[in-house]
Structures are given as C-alpha cells and as structure tokens.
Amino acid sequence: MSGKDKDKTLAEQIAESAAQNTLALNPLVAVRPQDLMDAAGKAIRAMSTQPQNFFQQWMTFATDVTKIMTGQSEIEVDPKDRRFADPAWKSSSVHKALAQSYMAWSKAVTDLVDKTNLDDKDAARARLVTSIFIDTMSPSNNPVLNPTALKTFVDSGGKSAVAGLKNFLDDMTKNGGLPSSVDASKFQVGKNLANSPGSVVFRNELLELIVYAPTTEKVYQKPFVLVPPQINKYYSADLSPDKSMVKFLTANGIQPYCISWRNPTKEHADWGLEDYILALDEAVDAALEISGANSVNIMGSCSGGITLSTYLAYLAGKKQKKIESNFLAVCVLDTEAETDNDMAALVTPETVMAAKQMSKARGVLDGQDMAKMFAWMRPNDLIWNYWVNNYLLGNQPPAFDVLFWNADTTRLPARLHADFLDLIFTNPFVNGGKLTIAGVPIDLKTVKLDTYVIAGTTDHITPWKAVYQTARLYGDKTTFILSNSGHLQSLLNPPGNPKSWYVKGVATAKDPDEWVKTAEKKEGSWWLDWAERLKERSGPQVDAPKKAGNARFKDLGPAPGTYVFEP
Question: Is 210 found in the same domain as 74?
Fold first, then answer.
C-alpha cells in the first residue's frame, strides 16, 4: 500500500473502491438461484469426470500448505488487496499463514474450475459462482480471524461489537439484508446535492425538463440537453459543487437542460422505449422554443445513450434536423461487442425470458432488486467491504455523494425493461430496421452527426473497447475520448485533479488497440476539451435570459423538480 493510501481512512478507501462499481448500468437480467445451482452442478459433474485434475490441484494445494506451515512459502498477498491491508497479515505468523492458505486454496479452486470441460457459457457461469464462493470464504470476513476487528474490539472494550450488531439488525430490517453502503443521513437532494439553481420548464408523464440559471452575462444560444439513464436519478450530473457538470457548463456560458425521468410504478408498466423517445422529443422541442435556437447539442450516458441513439435514428428517419452535435458517454450499443463483463455469463434466452416474466408480473423492475444482484457480481467492493466496516468494526458506512446517488435507485417499467432486453438479441444499432419507433425504422447508419464518445480505462461495466465500437458505429470521423477512470468517474472528471489524463483521437482504426497507438495522450480533464468543442457548436453568444421559460413554457417550480423526490 502506498503512503498516500495509508493516510486515507478506512471509510475513504471503501468509498473510493465502491465508487468504481456504481449501479449506473444495472444488470437487467436477474440472477436466478436455479442458474447458479445449475452452474455449480455442471462444474461438479465435469470435475468428477476428470479426477486427475482434482488430484493434481489437491496435491498442489497440499504442497503449498506444507510450505506455509514450515515458513517456506513464497505466496504473497496482492498489496492492492484491501482485505489484507492490516500489517498483522504480514507480521503475525498466524495471520500470515491464514492469508497464504486462503490464497493457495482460492488458486487451487479457480484452477480446478478453469480446467473443467465446459462450454464457454457454462464455464463463465462456473467461474462466476466460484468467485462469489471464494470471496465469501475470505478470513477477513470472519470476526474471529480479522486482526483489525480483534484489535478494535479490545480497544473499544467491546463497544465495536455492540455497534456492529446494531448496524446488522438495522440492515436486516431496513436494507433488505445487505450492508448499507452509505450514511444517507448526511445528504439531502436539493440541499447539498442537486442544488444548482434552476427551474422546471416542461413536464409530461415521463419526464421533467430542468433548465439551469446562467452564471455568466452572455450565454451560447444553442441549449445543451442532458439525457441520463432511466435506471438512476438524473442528479449524477449535479452532485456536490466540486464535481457538478451543470455548474461547469454554466460557468462556461453553456445553457444546460437536464431530463429528470419519472420513477415509474406498476401503473406505468406499459411505458416502453417508444414512449420514452416521444417524451424526449417533446422536451427537445421545448428547449428549442425557449432558447430560440434551431438545434441543440445533446448528450446521453449509459442507458441514456441507448435512448439517445434511438432518438437520433428516429429523427433521421423522419428527416428532422433538431440536433447540432451528439455526445455519448460509457455507452455500449453493439451487444455483440467483445467484453469481459461478468454479466455476459447470465445472458441466455432462458434468463432473458425469466427476467421479462418477472418484471411483467410485478409491473416494474425494482432498482433495489437490481442493486442486490449487482452487489453479488462485485462482492468484495459492494458487500464484504461494508460487512467488515459496518459489522466487524462497528463503524458507520461512509458518507460519500456518489454512493448516496448510487443507492437512490429507481424502477424500470416492465415494457421498457423488455425492450432493453430485446436489444441484446436484435442488436438494432448494428442491424438497421430491427427496431421501429412510432412507425419509423431505426437505422443508425442514417445518423450523420458530429459525434464525441467518452469511455473509461477501468470501466468494467461498459468496457472501453466495447464503447469504442459505439464510436465506430457513428462513423470513422467520430472523436473518441478514453479517460483514465472508471464508469462514473470517467464522467465526473472536473479539472483540477493532477492525476487526470485522457487519450483523444478519431475512431478510424477498426481495432481499439491500434487506435491507442496513434491517439494523442493529454494531461488533465477531458471536460476542458469538451467545453471548447461545445462552444464551437453552440451558436452565437446572446444576453443571458433573465428568467426561465417563456410565454408557453412557464416556470413550473425550482430545480431539482418534483419527479426526483418520488419514492
């Protein structure tokens, strides 16, 4: 662990790690116990037919244990593995042996599964089940074996155990049985989050349109419309002031208009992708009329990027010119693009059908259910970190704005959920005409727009190479930005971080690795490049409006609006 990491509190380390695994792209295919049991069963049966592999791994593990017991083992824990950050895992012979034995055992189990004769899909599922089991069995999760927990218990006179038990009981009754990821008492939407001054100027059943108050005397005429994912609430674009996209845009004279999607209930089960596209079109028309511009710049992230791309193809099919330029972030459009995403192991026709049936029966896909499922895809970062912090150490979870937003989940209407799942197999952005919106065939090849695509180097949710293929779908003149961060961090990347850098280039190369060789690396935040690009495409500067809206689209109330507060 670096000296800087040592200076961070445990809560800060947990928050930093968990923030790399936000729910901005929720898994839409549920984990069924049957799928996991089937995967485990197939792996066990395959192992039983290859006893030589089992014997080989057992002997290797036995040899490792012998070396560990005699102090001759050279097994080392990854210094980046926060589970074993306590110095006792190295200085204490007992704890060192525990850590080494765990690493040897986990390698033996993983190698054994890797050597089984399973097809690609079953092998991926077996690895997923195995990784969950291995992470669960870590000695760091055990209150008797974790040295930090033992020392805290002694130093606090047992108070840490009492506090941990209280936290555990609270989570069992209030958090669905998972450890809380954030101290929600420290945040309030509209107060210390999503607090940029603005007004709702348009509202329909599906969305509110928020325009933000200018902070400069002159503004660029063309609006900038932000299309967030339907899966989380919109205010990731306006978190705390130091990482607010909205504040950055207004400081640069840009007029941001943000979509705030409504949190649907079972009464809205029939809202599908077409309904969202038509609702978005109404909002864009409102922004155009209020600003007096003839086109808008527009940006979509994650599933909001899928929605936006569908909308752009819809406009192209109708031969309507409303968009000046297009920005997409952490968005995968080609569902066959190669990724290392663990979720791919769960996507089969059977699991997709089961997911559809479940949301259809309930009317919605609940965000809390998705959060639980996603947590088990990254258990060390999203479960066991908090298990140790909240229960074994008796601490409160970290107070971190990104994690508060991440826990503020929403629902998807059953119809929209089904439409998103259908994209997996129809792949309509590659296969034009497979999707139709209001009678208009969707063909991305008809979209001829200046496009700018952003990805994150360490994003495992929408891996950057798959996002690069999104840029390619928009044509080889598309600008591609690769930011040195994860899924949400690649978006929330304001100037000022001395460690920020990004790679920029036109997506002419077919292979992303070839693109990297010719692209230009730049120091600092891509936000600065983004702002200059926006200014060039936002028309003339005009006097900043004195009030929100106009005669037709009146001020309906202050930001952050009303839909964001609907439970």
Answer: no
